[in-house]
Amino acid sequence: MAPDEPADRHRATAAALLPLLGGAGNVLSVTNCMTRLRLELRDRALVRDAELRALPGVLGVVEDGSSYQVVLGPGTVARVAPELARLAATVPGPGEEPTPGTTAPVTAAALAERGAALRTARKARNATPVKLLLRRIAAVFVPLIPALIGCGIVAGLAGLLANLGWLPALAPGLAAVASGFMSLIAVFVGYNAAKEFGGTPVLGGAVAAIVVYPGVDRVHVLGERLSPGQGGVLGALAAAVLAAYVERWCRSRVPEALDVLVTPTLTVLLAGFVTLYGLMFVAGEVSTAIGHLADRLLGEGGAAAGFVLGGLFLPLVMLGLHQALIPIHTTLIQQQSHTVLLPILAMAGAGQVGAALAVYARLPRNGSVRGTIRSALPAGLLGIGEPLIYGVSLPLGRPFVTACVGGAFGGGFVGLLNQWGHVVGSTAIGPSGWALFPLLKGSHGLGPAAAVYGTGLLVGYAAGFAVTYFFGFGKGRVAELNAPKAAPPSQGVPPSAYSVQEN
């Protein structure tokens, strides 16, 4: 029975989630990204929030517009999602009304309420046209992350075997498996972009496919010959968005009797020609500039650039501006087979972990906060930082700032080693923390890359801990948080008791 236990556990999780979400009748759709269930609900009021957040295995809850999201973590979410979808399609909804949830111990509840208030205020600030556009662009790339991770790990395995001289006959097969998706990533970007911006997905993919078509090398623009792949994912994104707008314009003007013939033809023709004679050239220049800028930034800036990037990433997440980095990461991976930015930005999570450990050490009599940290720490080490951020550091105030300082020192260390010639990059986006190790790629091989990245994490942990321990609390704040009214450790609230938000 042992092989079936994980499957049974995931089915049990789905079965436990469904009634807390209001029953099958309240769940309209179930999808998932790398760490979250993304749910469309009929009636938000039917969700039993307190019980849902306290459910074992739930790392947090996200409310983002019309989407209700449950954070389960990588791996788990991909297995729970189909089980929940199956149950939602077959089990009748109970029509239960929300039931009062349990209350957290006083100190934890206060932090959770403050985290919720900060989350609400940030959501209001982030509802700007630019940030909403960044969200839509992020939605284009997020579904591609599993393939990027899988192909990235295979590419790392192929490189490792090649460096060791093992199984040379297997190298071409591994290269094909690792590179096939990347050679056609423009098509997938186009498909998702058209879908996100209101067009027909396959038409977006058809126009984006022009970017990687080998025959474009016979087309000349401004006296220069185009090359297959010129413009990369940025060109594909622009082409598909243009195709979506052209298609919508055509559908509003073409008679219904001719729509099936005229609209697809005009969409592909007009958007395709603009892509060939404009977008590919412009996007190619932008993509090249991004690659040169990243190389120059870390090659010359070194520790200073890493310090700034590592220290500002958490605030960028808070402002919703980190989503602009997703196409940049993808462009670097397509150009150079890795992104040098992600290992540095991952140091922000290390600073967060170090800060949480310092809070744990400074509050020996606060059972609720220490319970939250104990439960959230494993996820934080794997790069899932929302429970620590919204349940501990951000509501406390200063520990969030000191966590940023810890990330800055970790980023500065990795940036300095990059400047000294030990370039460390990631072959995919998505994972962070310890989960990033299988995706590392370095100028001197996997071993040195892992050593640099691992030492950077240790620097981030240590700096985040030290700065938070000595400067993370104002005068009298430690005594206040260590007050006897705090609940004992056995009554601690897991990180799932806190709703989280990520843009």
TrEMBL record:
Extent of the signal sequence: none
Entry's Gene Ontology cellular component terms: plasma membrane
Pfam families: PTS_EIIB, PTS_EIIC
Example GO molecular function: protein-N(PI)-phosphohistidine-sugar phosphotransferase activity
Active site: 33
Highest taxon above the source species: Bacteria
Domain PTS EIIC type-1 stretches: 135-487
SUPFAM superfamilies: Glucose permease domain IIB
Protein name: PTS alpha-glucoside transporter subunit IIA
